[in-house]
Amino acid sequence: MAPKLHSIIASPPVRAVLMCAKVLDVELELIPVDLLSKDHLKDEYLKKNPQHTVPLLEEDDGFLLADSHAIMGYLVNQYGKDDSLYPKNDSRLRAVIDHILHLDSSVLFIRGLFISKPLLFQKILPTEEKIKDLKEAFKILDAVLEKNQTKYVAGNSLTIADFSVVTTITCFDSFTPYAEFPHLKAYIERMEQESWYELNKEGLAINKKMIGELMNELKNQ
C-alpha cells in the first residue's frame, strides 16, 4: 500500500513533499489534516506527531516521520530509482543540499512562519520587524544564488532542496515580494517552467487568498 501523508495542500512543506514524490513517481495516500480546525492538536494526531505539524509520513508498519526535509530524504532513499535528488556518494553536493535545507528550515521558513502563524491563528498583523527579518532571509538566499550561478539552488541538477525553497519563497511572497531580488526572481521563474511545479499552484493559490483576505480584513478594522 502507498505511504500515508497527513497533509493540507495550503502548507508549503506539504507541497514540497508532493513535488518530490511526483518526481520520484511515488504514490502517496493523502490524509487531510485541517489546521484551522485544529486537527493537528487532537490526541490521535499528537500521539503520532508530538510536533503537531504537517506533513507527517506514515508507513503501513507503523513507521512515522515528521518534517518535510526529512521526509523527502527518506523518500529518495527508500523509493527512488536513483539518488540524484539527494546523492549518497557525492559528499560535497550532499553537504550543499543539506546547507540549503537547513537554511530553509532555520531561516527562510521559520521567519515566514513567525508571520503567518500569528496571522492565521490569532489574527495578528505582522510587525515591521518581522517583515524586515523575512526580507533579510530572502536577501541571503538571493546572495547564495548570485554566488553559485547555478540553474538549481544547490547545483546544476534538481535536488530536494529546490522543492523546499520554491514552496517557501512563493508562499511568503505574500509578505515580501521575491521580485525585489533579481537572482531569486530568475530562479523562481526557471522553476515555474518545470513540470513538477504544477503541484505548487493550487495550494499556493489557496494560501495566498486566505492570507490576502485576512490581512485586508485586519487592516480595515
What is the molecular shape?
globular
Q: Into which percent range does the helicity of residues fall?
A: 55-70%
Query: Could you tell me the strand content as a percent range?
Result: 5-15%
Radius of gyration: 17 Å
CATH level 3 topology of the largest domain: Glutathione S-transferase Yfyf (Class Pi), Chain A, domain 2
Return the average pLDDT rounded to an integer. 97
Q: Indicate the low-confidence ranges by residue numbers.
A: none
Distance between the termini: 50 Å
- List the total number of helices: 8
Taken together, the total number of domains comes to 2
Q: In sequence order, what are the helices and strands, one letter per element? A: EHEHEEHHHHHH
Structural class by secondary-structure content: alpha+beta
What kind of sheet is the major sheet? 4 strands, mixed
Query: Per CATH, which architecture of the largest domain?
Result: Up-down Bundle
Strand order in the largest sheet:
2-1-3-4
